From TrEMBL:
One Pfam family this sequence matches: Phage_holin_3_6
Database matches in InterPro entries: Phage_holin_3_6
Name of the protein: Phage holin family protein
Highest rank taxon of the organism: Bacteria
Length: 131
């Protein structure tokens, strides 16, 4: 004889299936978020190491160049040479600070996870209005 369920059992079975699907979807999204965080961590570590090495090398090269210019013009225009070197350093510092500020404003962390969650929200029929 076939196992027949009543209406209450069917509702409970459907609710369990729905809950199971929601948990599976949540787990998938959580795994995606973890993968994105790990990739971002690795990218940031590489970026920091390379930027640090480049900054140290650039500092030594710039110091040598400025020392060469000051020694070259020491007899005739020592104050002008030191002033020009200081101005160049201030301009380079301002450009680097501006570039760092622009990079800091960019938001990339977990973009894929957020877009998938938005797709899930739209698929479920819910809409979220932008503030």
């Amino acid at each position: 004889m076939a196992d027949r369920q009543g209406p209450a059992e069917r509702v409970i079975t459907s609710a369990r299936r729905l809950l199971s699907n929601m948990i599976a979807t949540g787990e998938t999204r959580l795994r995606l978020a973890v993968l994105e965080l790990e990739a971002e961590r690795d990218r940031m570590l590489s970026l920091l190491l390379l930027a640090g090495a480049a900054l140290i090398t650039f500092s030594f090269a710039l110091g040598m160049l400025l020392l060469m210019l000051v020694v070259l013009y020491w007899e005739d225009h020592r104050l002008l040479a030191i002033g020009v070197c200081a101005a160049v350093l201030f301009i380079i510092t301002a450009c680097l600070a501006y570039g760092a500020k622009r990079i800091a404003k960019r938001r990339r962390l977990m973009q894929s996870t957020l877009s998938h969650l938005e797709q899930d929200r739209q698929a479920l029929g819910g809409s979220r209005e932008s503030p």
